[in-house]
UniProtKB/TrEMBL annotation:
Gene3D superfamilies registered for this protein in UniProt: ABC transporter involved in vitamin B12 uptake, BtuC (1.10.3470.10)
Subcellular location: Cell membrane
InterPro entries xrefs: ABC_BtuC-like (IPR037294), ABC_transptr_permease_BtuC (IPR000522)
Gene Ontology terms, MF aspect: transmembrane transporter activity
An annotated GO cellular component: plasma membrane
Membrane-spanning intervals of the chain: 56-82, 94-117, 123-141, 148-169, 241-265, 277-302, 314-332, 353-374, 394-414, 426-444, 450-470, 482-504, 570-597, 609-630, 642-659
Bilayer topology annotation: Multi-pass membrane protein
Main location (coarse class): membrane
GO terms classed as biological process: siderophore-iron import into cell
Family, as annotated: Belongs to the binding-protein-dependent transport system permease family. FecCD subfamily.
Protein name: Fe(3+)-hydroxamate ABC transporter permease FhuB
Keyword Transmembrane helix appears in the UniProt entry: yes
């Protein structure tokens, strides 16, 4: 571990001692609700077969605690390998679509071929994880496994798998509670089979990672220097990704999805003072193990008290997110990530494509108004019948276009200010804040009706924005810290949302459909309000074009050119937050356009900030309008959420472009 200032030398040791002591105290407290402490040793070695309490302690409580330690260590190591390999602080097992692949595989089997469950859930989850990894690596191979290509391929693959999973869940709502319970990560055990399988697997993978510690350490250098030192970047990155995928697959197959640990554990290890990879290789798994053990003990206490039965995987944010939020202001500022260059301006700006995009948008809006699908199949609406369908179709098309334009613009602002291809509106935590407000209102049952739920959602969104900006203020609104704050806050708020969905509440499908992006409730009053905000915010975003051209050059160059770095960061982040808030309140947290719209604008050749803003506006609106048409017609008279259809439309194109074009 790198040396630290004298006054801070013992702080990391103290922090880990406190965390470890907290985990042990909570676990012991939880065990006392199941068996008196004097009987623990006897129940561990020789449980009495005529004592149900000792049997439960031996075959359920002890294996559960050991499984928590092993699962947390495995995910902490997986997150560390991904962040080191991709040189991205936002990387986690979710980044490469590994968890999404396992969830999709299990969902498909459960819905379409339940007979395959005889193979075992671990086998199915492992197959989905490895297929997702193979797909990502195939897409990134043309780019020589560059970190940017791997991040983009993994994220779009994860979003695509997630979109398919949600669509299947919405069409098979009788399985929603079961799938969300598994997706929440349950550590409940009834024998020693899970820890017996996890221990050798995670141990062997840890040894392999330790043997490759020096090549992984050199990945922290830029690509030119690493190659000059003889590091085979493609081979080392492939090894890191494969190890992370295997760790994620092993853990997910046995306990389900345990969120946030893969992101938080490496960051907490770094914030505790571990600067070198070898030090983080020890501390990241330890952090993950202690986090999951402590959270699982809290979950057990809540369950024993009859308060709530919450999946452990969802509840990991209860301890990890506040801890990360507390440590973030203490993070030393770092240099811009290596992805910065790829997001900067280029030599040629193909602005002639903007009129083409505008024409396509006009055609899409016309199609949204005139194309329908009924008992006789697809048909065009006759002019005489247009007045009958206009009140239903026009508001939907308008709200979809406005939301898509604002989310794509917000994503562009975030990606330019941070230089991070993972940056997207949902990363700020605003969409999760809105969903949290609505879910909490439904759980409490104090508000009814669309207007009341909308007000509750708006309150949650603005509270999330306030917290993110307050924490970011201490770091001078450093983009990576703001994004990590948003992710931590999202994970914390997700506890309530996942619990609500997993507990089988009959209103859960309504929340799930709204979170997937629904235009079903659009009307002209909502359109007018959203359009008024868009008319103010989109031109204001365009007015920031000079700052957006300079910011990707890095803080040193920006200051040399006279740019007020802290002020510009705050202005850009605030603008992205406002755009996201309005769009999410209009249609729900659509988790595709804000990420992919800016990338698609760059892929068609738009380089300058002003042209990328206009291109993102047009692409976001175009994709959402087309998605709205397909959402209401593909399985008529039933509907799919517009956001899910948008993902199913746009993500294959983005995946194809990432795999086709060298960086």
């Amino acid at each position: 571990m790198a040396a630290m200032p004298g006054s801070d030398t013992y702080r990391p040791l103290l922090a880990y001692a406190v965390l470890g002591l907290l985990a042990l105290i909570l676990t012991g407290w939880c065990w006392t609700t199941q068996l008196p402490a004097p009987q623990w040793w006897g129940a561990l070695l020789h449980p009495r077969l005529d004592d149900p309490q000792q049997l439960v302690f031996h075959f359920a409580a002890l294996p559960r605690a050991l499984t928590a330690l092993l699962a947390g260590a495995g995910l902490g190591l997986a997150g560390l390998l991904l962040q080191q390999t991709l040189r991205n602080p936002l990387a986690s097992p979710t980044t490469l679509g590994l968890e999404a692949g396992s969830q999709l595989a299990l969902t498909v089997v459960l819905v379409a071929a339940p007979g395959l469950l005889m193979l075992g859930r671990p086998v199915i989850a492992l197959a989905g994880t490895l297929l997702a990894l193979g797909f990502v690596m195939a897409c990134a191979a043309r780019n020589r496994f560059s970190s940017v290509a791997l991040v983009l391929a993994g994220l779009v693959a994860g979003l695509f798998c997630g979109a398919l999973t949600i669509a299947l869940r919405l069409l098979n709502q009788e399985f929603v509670a079961i799938l969300f319970l598994w997706g929440g990560g349950s550590l409940a055990q009834q024998d020693w089979s899970a820890p017996a399988a996890l221990a050798p697997s995670i141990g062997a993978l840890y040894l392999l990672a330790a043997l490759l510690a020096r090549p992984f350490e050199l990945l922290a250098l830029d690509e030119e220097n690493a190659r000059a030192l003889g590091v085979p970047l493609g081979l080392v990155r492939s090894a890191g990704l494969l190890l992370a995928a295997l760790l994620t697959a092993v853990v997910t197959a046995h306990v389900g999805v345990i969120g946030f640990v893969g992101l938080a554990a490496p960051q907490i290890a770094r914030l505790a003072g571990a600067r070198r990879f070898a030090a983080r290789l020890l501390l990241a798994p330890l952090t993950g193990a202690l986090l999951v053990l402590a959270v699982d003990a809290i979950v057990g206490l809540l369950e024993a008290a009859g308060i709530i039965d919450l999946p452990t995987g969802a509840a990991t944010a209860l301890l990890g997110a506040p801890l990360l939020l507390w440590l973030l202001p203490r993070l030393r500022r770092s240099e811009p990530p290596s992805t910065q260059r790829s997001l900067a301006t280029g030599a040629r700006d193909r602005t002639r494509l903007l009129p083409v995009l505008a024409a396509l948008l006009v055609l899409a809006v016309a199609g949204a108004l005139l194309i329908g699908h009924g008992s006789l199949g697809w048909r065009l609406i006759a002019p005489a019948d247009f007045a009958l369908v206009e009140p239903w179709r026009a508001p939907r098309a308008a709200i979809a276009a406005l939301a898509g334009a604002m989310l794509a613009t917000a994503g562009l602002l975030l990606q330019r200010v941070s230089g991070n291809p993972l940056a997207a509106p949902e990363v700020l935590g605003i969409g999760t804040g809105v969903a949290f407000g609505m879910a909490l209102a439904m759980i409490l049952g104090q508000t009814t009706g669309l207007a009341a739920h909308t007000a509750a959602g708006a309150s949650g969104g603005f509270l999330a924005l306030f917290l993110v900006l307050m924490v970011g203020r201490r770091s001078g609104f450093a983009p990576d810290q703001v994004l990590l704050t948003g992710l931590a806050l999202s994970a914390l708020l997700d506890v309530v949302i996942v619990a609500f969905l997993a507990l089988g509440d009959p209103r859960a499908p309504q929340v799930l459909a709204w979170m997937a992006g629904s235009t079903y409730y659009a009307d002209w009053s909502k359109v007018v309000t959203t359009a008024a905000f868009a008319a103010l915010l989109l031109p204001a975003a365009l007015a920031l074009r000079r700052w957006l051209d300079i910011v990707p050059m890095g803080p040193v160059t920006a200051r040399a050119l006279g740019l007020p770095v802290q002020t510009s960061r705050l202005a850009i982040l605030a603008m992205a937050s406002l755009l996201t808030s309005v769009a999410v309140m209009a249609t729900g947290p659509l988790t595709f356009v804000g990420l992919a719209g800016p990338h698609m604008a760059r892929l068609i050749g738009l380089r300058r900030a002003w042209s990328q803003i206009l291109g993102s506006v047009l692409i976001g609106a175009l994709v959402m309008v087309v998605a709205d048409v397909l959402a209401r017609t593909l399985i008529a008279p039933r509907e799919l959420p517009t956001g899910i259809v948008a993902a199913l439309i746009g993500l294959p194109y983005l995946i194809w472009q990432v795999g086709r074009r060298p960086q």
